[in-house]
Amino acid sequence: MDPERQPVHLAPGAGRRYAMGRIDAVFKADGPETADRYSISEWWLEPHTAGPGAHTHPEDDVFYVLDGTVSFLLGDRWVDAPKGSFVLAPGGFPHDFENRTDERAGALNFSAPGAFEPHMPGIAAWFRGRDA
């Protein structure tokens, strides 16, 4: 047992928030909570909201759609993922996400290996600048 790590319980909607215009990220566990091994966050998209654009990174991105329908780009193919859907974008694989519907949509994201939240201030600033 790692004496530095403690169990985490958060109420619905709780966590560290990053507002990015029409996208909100809520980090549930990252960095010290996970010993920098993985990151868990919720991503909420307002209706008709584009994501970051096609991108790659070395970490695996796992998504579980919590509400609504999130569209995911996986390589060169878009898939519509309704509530309850599971999506895996392996590290190095081009991917993107967006909400093409008239309803708010959200997904739980598990990113591994490593912490992801340290990148969020820069990512949030980029989104806010893009949507300005």
Automatic annotation (TrEMBL):
Gene3D superfamilies (alphabetical): Jelly Rolls
Which PANTHER family does the protein's record reference? PUTATIVE (AFU_ORTHOLOGUE AFUA_8G07350)-RELATED
- Top-rank taxon, per record: Bacteria
Record's protein name: Cupin domain-containing protein
Q: Report domain Cupin type-2 positions.
A: 45-105
